[in-house]
């Protein structure tokens, strides 16, 4: 995620707070994020009017006051990650569908060219050079190269009855697929960045939730009614 801040409905929070968390301390969510966020709000509601016993037991009061803030950070970071994750998945799905046709067009053009150019060894060599290499980026470049080569020798291709619109299709697809492949590759990186920020936001909230719960369980260990508010109630 490239934004410098996480925007929430009530506050604007610097990402620096989250990015400062060392990678060695990052924890991954073990329950659904929406559930954990709601638990944090419930916990804050439970202790809002009865904080003194907790702070008297050594709990840093900032954990209490900052709890809703941390919950909003995680909620927003989760939303950003999910949005980018789905965008990447959509791009990948489109690539998977279109690349099948693109590879087929590439193979068709190369077969047609080799037949049409069979009496021209220099042109066959050019086709062979284009067909070398592998990978998606190479395939996209091959479509562009084949379109240029075919248009330069269209007389030989029309002589074998080739559908010449295939050359225009190859050029168009090369441009479109290059952009699509860049989205797939680029959003993989964005997705990783957004996920890391989400995980750090989870870690940031978990720190406060854990400290409040462990303190509350100690303070109210002999008071079952108040103790229940510091135990997980959502599944």
Q: What would your notes on this structure say?
A:
This protein has ten helices and two strands, in the order ββαααααααααα. It is mainly alpha-helical and 235 residues long. Strands 1-2 form a two-stranded antiparallel sheet. The longest helix is centred in the C-terminal third of the chain and has 55 residues, at 165-219. It is rod-shaped. The relative contact order is 0.18.
Number of helices: 10
Q: Could you say which structural class the secondary elements and strand pairing correspond to? A: mainly alpha
Task: Provide the succession of SSEs.
Answer: EEHHHHHHHHHH
Whole-Å distance between the termini? 30 Å
> Ranges with pLDDT <50 over ≥5 residues?
1-13
Biggest β-sheet: strands ordered side by side in the sheet: 1-2
- β-strand percent reads under 5%
Taking the sheet with the most strands, its summary is:
2 strands, antiparallel
Radius of gyration: 29 Å
Helix content: over 70%
Total number of strands: 2
